[in-house]
Sequence to fold (420 residues):
Amino acid sequence: MPVTAVVGAQWGDEGKGKITDLLAQTADVVIRYQGGNNAGHTVVNQFGTFKLHLVPSGIFNPNALCIVGPGTVVDLQVLCEEIVSLEAAGISTANLRVSDRAHLLMPWHIALDRLDERERGRQKLGTTGRGVGPAYADKVGRHGIQIYEVRDEKAFRERVSHELATKNVLLTRFGDAPMDPVTVADGVLAAAAKLGDRITDTLTLVESALAKDAAILVEGQLGAMRDLDWGIYPYVTSSNPLAGAASVGAGIPPRAITRVIGVVKAYSTAVGEGPFPTELIGPQADSLREMANEYGATTGRPRRVGWFDAVAAHHAHRLNAFTEIAVTKLDILGAYAEIPFCTSYELDGATTTSMPPTRILERVKPRYETLRGWSRDLTGLADRAHLPVEARAYLKRIEETVGAPVGMVGIGPEREATLL
Ligand code: GDP
Fold:
């Protein structure tokens, strides 16, 4: 069985949750390999509509082992709340495990995230304010606390006091209230106690799944344009959504990951700041946003919307080598008679299909082809062959410009509304 990675090929929110939920029906193991609860994967299935923040989208398959991988940063209290709300909806979370090497997202990370955005002022990054950036900063700066450390309560309390000694200086210097180490440690320890032996060494679990040739899915958060190294730095997430990071973040040798599904929306959206060349503004943007219900799953923020950007998706393909592309939300474009499709950028009078770094990307002008729309509702179609000829031509253009075959097409939010 190949290990399959499901990754975002745009700015995030491509619909990875739905694709993972679909593939998870036949998976034995589903692993989240990076990010924290800034993610908001929307899953619509027979159980209802769910917004998952930390729990892998495989949780709806009672037979799949779901792992919050070592590459993530975990707010244990938020994870407990997510478990409670899933259980309340009748979804068993008995098969959920959390890597004991993942880093704790501590309450001070949330405070520092908000403080940092406030101090950046107009240069703000547009983070979700959940503390994910500061948690990764502490991990890299060797101030992070790995989850296994809660097992030694005394040592953990000392770590919390020690870290807060400097964090509190920063917080109070910028007018925030200091945090009490006892209260902070109590909260985290209580959440850890609720999770009990779900907190475990996940390497052993993954290793034995690989040995049994089990079907393993690894699920990324956000997309290539928000990758820490290859995205629009500094308007990026603090980890690597690219499939390459799945190896480290899930604990799977790189040679094992042989299928990489790049998820793209049939148009583009972005949440947060930073360059977005094909962005629409004004009434055109409002109408696409409303039709497509483009509001953030975590924050409810209105998403920025624009036309499909093949330069961005091709950039993602160059870095991920997609074995296939999943195109979501094709149904939304049924509203247009003509659809602009960006195939290249104009930069200082020349044409390029290469993704330039951020400050240069801010200066490019998208070059569009106009593709014919199908002006039809796609609801209920059961076969790709039944798609209108214009819709098939649109998909063909995605394949040609991005460089990989389209393996799946979404024509509605429900799990079944996916043509294979
Ligand atoms: P993710 O973070 O990549 O999983 O993406 P989000 O969940 O934030 O955003 C995707 C949104 O599109 C969700 O509201 C999904 O229910 C919805 N969605 C996914 N695929 C389709 C599709 O093919 N058609 C329609 N209309 N909606 C879809």
